[in-house]
Amino acid sequence: MEDTVIPKELAPVVAFHGHFCPGVLIGWRAAKLAMKLLGVSRDRDEELVTVTENDACGVDAIQYILGCTFGKGNLHFRDWGKQAFTVYRRSDGKGVRLALIPPDRELTREESAQRLLSEPDEVLFSVGEAKELMPERARIHSSVRCDLCGERVMETRVRSLPDGRRTCIPCAERETSAQ
Ligand SMILES: [Zn+2]
Ligand SMILES: [Zn+2]
Fold first, then answer.
1. How far is the CA of 175 from the centre of ligand 2 (A)?
2. Ligand 1 centre from 118 Cα, in Å?
C-alpha cells in the first residue's frame, strides 16, 4: 500500500479509522455517493440516518463523513455481512441503498485500493431504493432492575425466565446455558 497516493480529503478519515485499507475506501466512496444522491452535505443536525449491513472498516468512514454514529442514534447495524449501506435524509425519509459491486476477478489489497480510488461510482456501487423505512429515532425507555445481577437494564431488553424472574440478556443467557 506504500505506493498508493492518498487524496488529501481522505487523510482525516484514515486518521480516524487508524489505518489505510480498502475497507475504509468503500465507506468513503459510499458516503460521498450517498451525499451526492441525496443532495446533502455533512451531517450537522442529524439530518442523515444510516443503516449499515456490516460492521467492518468502511463504517468508520460513514461515521466520520456522514456524522452517523451509534451515540447519536442515527447509525443502525444489521449484522448481515454485506458491503451495503442505506443512507436516509431525515427531513423526508428518502433513502438510497448502495451495494458494493464486486470486481470481476480476485484483486490484491493494492489493486482493490486502486480500484476504489479511481473507478467511477457506477462501477463500484449498485444504487437502489431503501429496502426498509427509515429507522425511528431511539426513544428513552424506562429501566428495570435485573433479578440476578442487580444492574439496571432498558425495559425493552429485559428477558423473562420460566420461573418468572426478570433479567438482563447476559444473565438470561447464562441461566439457559447452565441448564
Ligand atoms: Zn481498515
Ligand atoms: Zn443481569
1. 10
2. 18
pLDDT band for position 1 (50/70/90)? low
Domains present along the chain, CATH in parentheses? 8-129 (3.30.1330.130), 143-178 (3.30.60)
Which ligand has the minimum distance to the alpha carbon of residue 17? 1
Distance 66 CA to ligand 2 centre (A): 35
Q: Which residues surround ligand 2, an ion (CB under 5 A)?
A: 146, 148-149, 167-168, 171
At 28-80, the pLDDT tens digits run 999 999 999 998 876 555 589 999 999 999 999 999 999 999 988 899 999 99
pTM of the entire structure? 0.84
Q: Choose between 70 and 137: higher pLDDT.
A: 70
Closest CA to 4 of 121, 125, 108, 103: 108
Q: How far apart are CA 61 and CA 9, in angstroms?
A: 12
User: What is 3-55 written as a DSSP string?
Assistant: TPPPPGGGHHHHHHHSS--HHHHHHHHHHHHHHHHHT--S-SSS-EEEEES--
